[in-house]
Specification:
This protein has about 280 residues and is mainly alpha-helical. It has 2 domains: about 1-55, no CATH class; about 55-275, no CATH class. Helices cover about 75% and strands about 0% of the residues. It has helices spanning about 5-20, 25-55, 60-70, 90-110, 115-130, 140-150, 155-175, 175-195, 205-230, 235-250, 260-275. The longest helix has about 30 residues, at about 25-55. It starts with a helix and ends with a helix.
Length: about 280
């Protein structure tokens, strides 16, 4: 049961109790309800603050793909989740996870200035956001704005990042904060998947290994947010999926061995395959 459903159930129970108890208890019930409301508001604002600190969700993906481009890693179209898959995601869990995955794919394509692919991924992202009931964010007007600024990478990063900030805000505003965390998780997984699969000899490229190592910090931040919201629907499932990667990073020394890189690559590929299928 999600937070909104629990709140509704609690409100109904509170109303029934107030009808049965003496009027003197009514004020106490109201005070309790007010405290519950304040607590819920505090939790929601706490989630938002922590997610903002994590840099939700695209700037991290943009930073990763920008680093890949700077070290001369080639663009590989087949690394991304096909836009055709957008039609096969029917559950809100799969829609949220793959909205995050498409967010990272958007970052990847726009960083490498793949104009047509960027527009395709905008359209696929819109389809999933509409399916989550937040159709007012990734609009046709936004798509036109992206197209108009397709050659201005700095402006494009700003437009797309703000669009996904708004997506996060709308999910939280409509009582779907747990889904916003799934979007973040999907984006993080896809960015690391692209990084670990962009070359056949990842371990022998020290710059790529460095980028992989840096994701330990972002995973720790993501994990902290997920831990604090374990009661949210789907959150424990996502933590179970990420746990093997978390264990590898937790056991790292100061550097990554070839064995570590292979293990991370295999685990993130497994998780990503499960998310996109």
């Amino acid at each position: 049961m999600n937070g909104s459903a629990k709140t509704l159930k609690n409100m109904v129970l509170a109303m029934l109790l107030m009808m049965l108890v003496a009027p003197a208890c009514k004020r106490q019930g109201e005070r309790g309800s007010a405290r519950e409301s304040r607590k819920e508001t505090y939790v929601r604002e706490s989630i938002e603050s922590k997610v903002r600190e994590f840099v939700y969700p695209l700037p991290t993906a943009f930073e990763v793909t920008e680093m890949l481009k700077e070290i001369g890693a080639n663009y590989i179209l087949t690394l991304t989740n096909s836009v055709k898959n957008a039609d096969k995601y029917f559950t809100e869990k799969s829609k949220a996870l793959n909205l995050g995955i498409y967010a990272a794919d958007l970052a990847y394509n726009s960083t490498y200035q793949q104009k047509q692919e960027t527009m395709f991924y905008m359209e696929a992202s819109k389809k999933l956001s509409d399916g989550l009931g937040i159709s007012g964010v990734l609009t046709e007007e936004l798509a036109e704005k992206v197209e108009d600024n397709i050659n201005d990478k700095e402006k494009l990063v700003e437009i797309i990042s703000n669009a996904f900030y708004d997506t996060y805000d709308e999910l939280n505003r409509t009582g779907k904060g747990n889904l916003s965390l799934l979007v973040i998780a999907g984006s993080w997984v896809e960015a690391l998947y692209i990084t670990t699969n962009i070359s056949e000899n990842v371990y022998h490229n020290l710059e790529i290994v460095k980028i992989i190592h840096q994701q330990k910090e972002t995973l720790n931040k993501l994990w902290s947010i997920l831990e604090e919201n374990q009661n949210g629907e789907y959150i424990n499932e996502i933590m179970d999926e990420l746990k093997p990667v978390k264990d590898i990073y937790d056991n790292l020394d100061q550097s990554l061995s070839e064995k570590d890189v292979i293990a991370i690559t295999q685990e993130i590929s497994r998780i990503r395959e499960k998310f996109v299928s």
